[in-house]
Amino acid sequence: MDIIKTLAEELGISEHRAESAVKLLDDGNTVPFIARYRKEVTGGLDDTVLRELCDRLVYLRNLEDKKAEVKRLIDAQGLLTDEISAAIDAAATVTEVDDIYRPFRPKRRTRASIAKERGLEPLAQLILEMRPSYDPTIEAAAESFVDAEKGVESTADAISGARDIIAEAVSDNADYRKEVRRLTQRFGTVSSKKIGEGDSVYEQYYDYSEPLKSVPPHRILAMNRGEKEEMLKIDITVDRDIILNYLFSRALTNPSSPAFSHMAYAVCDSYERLIAPSIEREIRASLTDSAGEDAIKLFSENLKNLLMSAPLKGKTVLGYDPGYRTGCKLAVVDKTGMVLDTAVIYPTKPHEKIAESRRTVLGLIKKYGVDVIAIGNGTASAESEMFIAETLKDAPDTKYTIVSEAGASVYSASKAGAEEFPDFDVTQRSAVSIARRLQDPLAELVKIDPKSIGVGQYQHDMKQARLDEALGGVVEDCVNKVGVDLNTASYSLLSYIAGINITGAKNIVKYRDENGEFASRAAVKKVPRIGDKAYEQCAGFLRVPGGREVLDNTGVHPESYGAAKALLEMFGYTGEDVRAGGLSELRRRCTDAGISEVASRLGIGEPTLADIITELEKPGRDIRDTLPPPVLREKVIEISDLEPGMIMKGTVRNVIDFGAFVDIGVHQDGLVHVSEISDKFIRHPSEALAVGDIVTVKIKSVDAAKKRIGLTMKNL
Q1: Average pLDDT over the chain, rounded to an integer
Q2: Do both 338 and 378 map to the same domain?
Q3: Measured between alpha carbons, how far apart are the two ends of the chain, in Å?
């Protein structure tokens, strides 16, 4: 297999671009670095394509290793022919390679192997020949194989054993298995039946069936979970005649042969006893893997959009972790994320110390100039919101918002949480996390296992290693797209920067604590475990605001500093002009001079020039600043206040296969079904919505008892 050619065809890119990307990866370059700083080499492949290429590269190389190993194993048996070797070379999947190897694989004792031990292979071969006539007859020939000592008591035993050998041979035929698998996938049906007692969330699958070729991925995962919880029994079925007609047409070469009945019996037995159960397991596994990949892609997209949510900059925030018996924990965090104060109040049951709690909150607002209160959406959130809304009548300049606290408790109890706030208890850390994730979702959420953030579905039913790999890639891409302040970033955030591992990140923080702030990007090379290669990969994603070198606060890579400075000189600008934001005319002047001409004079590619111009225009820019800010609230809305027809603003909290959940400020997210998202047809909610989107919705239905809110976005 030509891996480069295969990658190019699958990804729809040229072989040159595929080969260049593979070489860069093999040379130890990271995906974010390649996507951002090697555009000329790859033709501008972005991080999404590069990660897909990386995944497929690993698969295809493993496939080639598998082929080589199978050839070696067959050759060791002295059975490798040119035909078999060519078939292995042509195989496009691991399954196809396994099919070819199947006849040669060491087997546990089977009915066929026992029959072979009893010397019945010649009889099986006689039947397989399907002669026009037999003299003596097959039955008469079978008499010579009767041997009580070998366990062959009669001619019927002999013929039965021969049929077992034939059945296994049919089952082991790679071409047969490939076509049976294709026919089953094309014409088969997946069905589920109720087997458990009582009602469950799987009611819609109690008597369910759907063609395999059209079943949605999320239904596969739902049924799998129902089966795991012993509420459902799942089967894959296909019209038996479709499969047998194919097998008969291939294996029964002479319908008039006296051997026909024996062959027909063996083929039917092969399919029902050997092939069908095996193919069903394979298809179930394939459906699960495919559904898992779809779920991972959706999870990844949701996570990316959540991490890239607009930060609430320049605001002092009071984080509010609601609770009952143990009280509500408060943490005031300044504009930079530093904790200024903490407190515990008891406005909820069973204490209901409302007046005292109000005084505490108002005191913190006044003392620290709190701009926004971030209320966690967990236990006692509704009561806390009512308390805060009433309290803020005496502090009208302060707003509040509800923040998802998914994963906050995980962080609070984690080693990272303990290291960051060793003197805080778990709930105090949670209040800090709630405040900070409003100020900078990315910086705070990277401290939490992505699986705990609450934007996925069926995540425990996926291959965990694959899920972790995919989500880790998303976090890495997001962190590097935004960049980090070298002098304030936590080690959790730094560990996702290209070229920096967890050890390197901790070393950076330790060096910073011991030696003070970094004066430049280059100074990071003094940190242990940050060598030349690591520096090359990470430098462009590190920011040093206020440093001596203004380019250190941009996305311009140090390798391009010479070109950037030459560009400034070319048009009469200085570093101070960059610092002062005075380069609004730079892009126009470059365009007037001719982009290709300017790039040529500077000795760089046009993509690099375009990136340099963008960075020089807005040093220290945050690409998230263009996104809509979080929705801030002033009054409480209860589900009982909702009526069909009401128009409201909300934030998309999660996108799933059949719709999207939107926070409209009533502690119960409303569901916009996929059919209610757009006036035009869409196949999947992700075509129109993303986590973090601020949307306008209309109340379609309200079920206060079941806490269900139906929303629509049509005709708005």
Answers
A1: 94
A2: yes
A3: 53
pLDDT digits 0-9 by tens, 25-83: 999 999 999 999 999 999 999 999 999 999 999 999 999 999 999 999 999 999 999 99
Mean pLDDT of the 403-414 span? 86
The Cα 575–Cα 165 span in angstroms is 82
Q: What is the pLDDT of residue 196?
A: 79
CATH no. for residue 519? 1.10.150.310
Task: State the Cα–Cα distance between residues 165 and 156, nearest whole angstrom.
Answer: 14
196 lies in some domain: no
- Binning pLDDT at 50, 70 and 90, where does residue 454 land? confident
pLDDT at position 405 is 86
Residue-wise pLDDT tens digits, 656-674 = 988 999 988 887 889 999 9
Q: Is this structure's pTM higher than 0.70?
A: yes
Answer yes or no: do 612 and 653 share one domain.
no
Average pLDDT over residues 684-710: 92
Q: What is the 3-state secondary structure (H, E, C) of 331-382?
A: EEECCCCCEEEEEEECCCCCCCCHHHHHHHHHHHHHHHCCCEEEEECCCCHH
- Tens digit of pLDDT for each residue in 383-406? 999 999 999 999 999 999 988 888
Could you tell me if 653 and 618 lie in one domain? no
Number of domains making up the chain? 4
Burial class (CB in 10 A: 0-12, 13-18, 19+), 230: exposed
In the DSSP assignment, the letter for residue 675 is G
Question: What mean pLDDT do residues 221-249 have?
Answer: 95
Q: Are residues 419 and 548 in the same domain?
A: no
Closest CA to 284 of 239, 247, 246, 233: 233
Out of 58, 89, 104, a domain closes at 104
What pLDDT is attached to residue 492? 94
Find the domain containing 441 and state its range: 317-471
Integer CA distances (angstroms), 235 to 232, 268, 329, 543, in order: 10, 20, 51, 56
CATH of the domain at 47: 1.10.10.650
Specify if 67 maps to a domain. yes
User: Is there a single domain that holds both residue 349 and residue 440?
Assistant: yes
What is the spatial distance between Cα 151 and Cα 707, in angstroms, rounded to a whole number?
69
Chosen domain end from 46, 79, 104? 104
Query: Dihedrals φ, ψ of 187, to 5°?
Result: -110, -5
Does residue 226 belong to any structural domain of this protein?
Answer: no
- Regarding whether 459 and 323 lie in a shared domain, the answer is yes
Based on the fold, state whether residues 517 and 413 are members of the same structural domain: no
- Are residue 330 and residue 462 in the same domain, yes or no? yes
Note whether residue 484 is domain-resident: no
Q: Which residues contact 445 (CB under 8 A, 6 or more apart)?
A: 306, 307, 407, 437, 453
* Residue 680, both tokens: 């035009």
Q: CA-based diameter of the chain, in Å?
A: 108
H/E element holding 589? helix 586-593
DSSP state of 256: T
- 446: tokens are 């990277």
**Domain at 648, CATH number:** 2.40.50.140
Distance CA 331, CA 89 (A): 63
pLDDT number for residue 666: 81
